Amino acid sequence: MSLYVIVVGGGNVGVQLCKRLIARGHEVVLMEKDARQAQKLGNLIGDENVVHGDGCDLITQRSTGFNRADIVVSVTGEDEDNLICCQLAKEVWKVKRVVARVNDPSHETVFRELGIDDTVSATGIIFSLIDQQISSDELIPVGHLHKGHVEVVESVLSERSPLLGRAVRDIALPQGSFIVSIFRDGVATQVTGDSTFSVGDTVVAMVPIVRAEELRAVLMARDH
Asked: Residue 74's closest CA among 51, 50, 100, 96?
């Protein structure tokens, strides 16, 4: 199914996201308020996919078609801009799905309280990696969904993981949790009940925040 996705912010994150979405056949518009950068991006990914304008401006939003967007993603370097853009998308244009980049992790609570569905904090992800010393079997948060009530996490399985050799259907996951994907040798594999776990697998899962510790117990080595 083709979606209409508006990406606000013509930095590297926005550009790479647009390239992937376009490659998947989606209708994509990238908004960039700097005229020179917008022109450069037009030459890079196509003039038809780039709009010069302020993603926080209602008139520009109207002309860009926020009212028919399936998803609006704001990934500028300014949290205030990302918040305003996503708020307007939800409240004025009734966009069903909005995603905001959060540059300062301390702002995530504010974003959730103001109704932003999904937030992604690169800083928070990197901090988690450092803080946990990139340990295998650790549960690393990579994003939030449903106003922060659900967390997307990943874990690299060590040789001590209790999951090794077991099938997905035999794993007692916490209520409301499920395995999204298993990355093996850098390639995502389709998850079925018969999928088994191996050393070095990166397991991506969704889990309610209140069940995160239970999932950690499932994934981690018993003597960890």
From this structure: 100
| Predicted local distance difference test score (pLDDT) of residue 156 | 86
CA distance 120 to 56: 19
Whose CA is closest to 117, among 132, 138, 95? 95
Q: Are 92 and 59 within 8 A, CB to CB?
A: no
pLDDT for residue 24 is more than 90: no
Residue 56, φ and ψ in degrees, nearest 5: -100, 0
Of the candidates 3, 37, 209, 15, the residue with the CA atom closest to the CA atom of residue 112:
209
CA distance 89 to 61: 8
DSSP secondary structure letter of residue 138: -
| 159, two tokens | 């040789």
Q: What are phi and psi of 189, to 5 degrees?
A: -105, 150
Nearest to 9 by CA among 60, 73, 62: 73
Do residues 188 and 203 make contact, with C-beta atoms less than 8 angstroms apart? no
Cα–Cα distance measured from residue 153 to residue 92, given in angstroms and rounded to the nearest whole number: 32
For residue 104, the SS3 value is coil
**Other CB atoms within 10 A of residue 216 CB:** 17
Q: What is the pLDDT of residue 149?
A: 76
- For the chain, first and last CA: distance in Å? 43
Nearest of 149, 133, 130, 137 to residue 203 by alpha carbon = 137
